[in-house]
UniProtKB/TrEMBL annotation, chain A:
Pfam families named among the record's database cross-references: HSP20
Gene3D superfamilies attached to this UniProt entry: 2.60.40.790
Family to which the UniProt record says this protein belongs: Belongs to the small heat shock protein (HSP20) family.
CDD domains (alphabetical): ACD_sHsps-like
PANTHER family, A to Z: HEAT-SHOCK PROTEIN 20 FAMILY MEMBER
Stretches assigned to the SHSP domain: 16-127
Stated name of the protein: Hsp20/alpha crystallin family protein
């Protein structure tokens, strides 16, 4: 492992230690692939981080808010400034062709299945 | 429908939720409108000497279709979030996100000026700022 790799691994570790909210998600699967929707309100586009490493998908986002000076919080349901959620993907998914859209705090991820693994109808031979 | 932003997959988040619930059930005088923890949209409320700031975490709604109303000192945020329609024959593996009509209510302090309230929607967060009336803002009184 090179020095740089070690530094990356360390920063990933410290990040994973920080407490984060678990965003609500929907996951659908059709013949062509998997679609993930995640609610990440308060996260601007540039603070959203998507990472696919080996078979792990990590969704992370930092909430950025302009708070007026001297504001005192009286009620907080979103009490942490970040979201994190990790999924294990399966082998048939083509992680090179992931398409992501992020609009109004909702992330839409499309992970297609590898082309050669698209469903094939198997004829049952009756003898 | 209850919306849980913290899901049992994350043990610490779930413990945090349990702790909140335990605390809430120990509260002898809960709000008449219930606890609402985990409702959609999640709300943060803060105050400054000059204003009351309400943040509603409402991702994926059309801001034009959200109704924000202040009446008799009560702020109401209501609207609808349409469900995403998966392709026919698609399998639903996880279904946690809220869909449907929502309504949340916040009681405001007496000194706010409802006519001067302003609302903005950005990155899925609805921010409503309601100024307090001049007369009740703290004033330093000089001693002669």
């Amino acid at each position: 492992m090179s020095e740089q790799d070690k530094a990356v691994a360390r920063s990933a570790e410290t990040r994973a230690d920080e407490a984060a909210l678990t965003p609500a998600v929907d996951v659908f699967e059709d013949a062509g692939g998997i679609t993930v929707y995640a609610d990440l309100p308060g996260v601007p586009k540039d603070k959203l981080q998507l990472q696919i490493e080996a078979e792990t998908l990590t969704i992370e986002g930092e909430i950025v808010q302009e708070l007026p000076e001297g504001m005192e919080a009286t009620h907080a349901e979103i009490a942490l400034p970040r979201y994190r959620r990790v999924f294990t993907l399966s082998k048939e998914l083509d992680t090179e062709k992931v398409v992501a859209r992020f609009d109004k705090g909702v992330l839409e991820l499309r992970i297609p299945k590898a082309a050669h693994l698209q469903p094939r109808r198997i004829e049952v031979q009756v003898e | 429908m209850r919306y849980r932003s913290l899901f049992p997959r994350d043990l610490f988040a779930e413990l945090d939720r349990l702790q909140r619930q335990a605390q809430q059930s120990l509260d002898a005088t809960p709000s008449i409108r219930g606890w609402n923890y985990g409702a959609y949209p999640a709300m943060n409320v803060g105050t400054t000497p000059k204003s009351v700031e309400v943040y509603a975490f409402a991702p994926g709604v059309d801001p034009a279709a959200v109704e924000v109303q202040i009446e008799k000192g009560v702020l109401t945020i209501a609207g609808e979030r349409k469900p995403v329609a998966p392709e026919e024959k698609a399998a639903v593996h996880i279904d946690e996100r809220f869909a449907g009509r929502f309504r949340r209510v916040v009681t405001l302090p007496d000194d706010v000026d409802a006519n001067a309230a302003a609302a903005r929607y950005r990155d899925g967060v609805l921010h409503i700022s309601i100024p307090r009336r001049e007369a009740v803002q703290p004033r330093r009184i000089a001693i002669e």
